[in-house]
């Protein structure tokens, strides 16, 4: 009910009422927006937070270690395997398995530079024959020298295949110890990653997502790189 006489027109509260209501709505909207921004920042921090790393150490004729975070679990090693890591289900990720094996005695060192790595390239041909058995649509996409860990030289093959109607990417690495005259053996690393948002193409297999750390953080011996 207006407190002013009709002939004097609308009162001040009546004139300012719509504006005040719009201002209140705007303030509430800004409060909600600020809350959403805070929640988004917290979610981003949680997603990118430094994960605690677990170290896996394998001792024996071939002694090595690597690290992995809580997106990966260590599963029972199969026949011929020294260490088997597997990704846990997660948003945007497909299954990935990383297997470490004994790749045999290291090639002799007293040769011209690059000689041992060239021998690994020849050895890889036999390794891949066993790897490709039964893989549908197998094709090698690239291969060449690679550096892993501190200064470990090796030979890498990238390939792809089909499994259960899905595209998979493979990474096979034969890695030399980084110490001259070492008695360590060659480390054989095999990664298979299903195509996903995290691993969207073959170059991202082992280079993006949870498996990057255990692949590129591997080291001979028991000391983490």
Please tell me about this protein's structure.
- The chain is 26% helix and 34% strand.
- It has three helices and ten strands, in the order H-E-E-E-E-E-H-E-E-E-E-H-E.
- The strands form two sheets. A seven-stranded antiparallel beta sheet has the order 3-4-5-9-8-7-6. A three-stranded antiparallel beta sheet has the order 1-2-10.
Summed up, what is this model?
By secondary structure, the protein is an alpha+beta fold.
List the helices and strands and how they pair.
Elements: H1 12-48, E1 54-58, E2 64-68, E3 72-75, E4 83-87, E5 96-105, H2 115-131, E6 136-148, E7 152-163, E8 166-175, E9 185-194, H3 212-216, E10 219-220
Antiparallel strand pairs: 1-2, 2-10, 3-4, 4-5, 5-9, 6-7, 7-8, 8-9
Mean pLDDT value: 83
Number of H/I helices: 3
How much of the polypeptide forms β-strand, as a percent range? 25-35%
Please state the CA-atom Rg, rounded to the nearest Å.
29 Å
Q: Judging from the principal axes of the Cα atoms, what is the shape?
A: elongated
Largest sheet: 7 strands, antiparallel
State the main characteristics:
225 residues; alpha+beta; 3-stranded antiparallel sheet; 26% helix; elongated
């Amino acid at each position: 009910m207006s407190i002013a006489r009709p002939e004097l027109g609308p009162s001040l509260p009546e004139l300012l009422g719509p504006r005040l209501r719009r201002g209140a709505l705007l303030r509430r909207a800004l409060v909600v927006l600020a809350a959403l921004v805070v929640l988004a920042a917290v979610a981003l921090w949680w997603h990118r937070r430094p994960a605690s790393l677990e170290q896996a150490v394998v001792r024996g004729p071939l002694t090595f270690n690597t690290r992995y975070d809580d997106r990966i679990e260590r599963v029972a090693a199969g026949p011929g395997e020294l260490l088997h890591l597997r990704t846990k289900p997660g948003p945007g990720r497909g299954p990935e398995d990383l297997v470490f094996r004994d790749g045999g005695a290291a090639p002799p060192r007293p040769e011209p530079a690059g000689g041992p790595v060239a021998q690994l390239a020849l050895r890889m041909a036999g390794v891949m024959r066993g790897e490709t058995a039964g893989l549908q649509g197998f094709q090698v996409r690239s291969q060449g020298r690679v550096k892993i860990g501190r200064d470990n030289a090796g030979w890498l093959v990238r390939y792809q295949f089909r499994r259960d109607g899905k595209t998979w990417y493979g990474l096979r690495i034969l890695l030399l110890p980084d110490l001259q005259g070492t008695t360590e053996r060659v480390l054989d690393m095999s990664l298979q990653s299903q195509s996903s948002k995290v691993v969207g193409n073959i170059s991202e297999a082992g280079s993006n997502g949870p498996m990057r750390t255990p692949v590129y953080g591997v080291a001979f011996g028991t000391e983490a790189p």
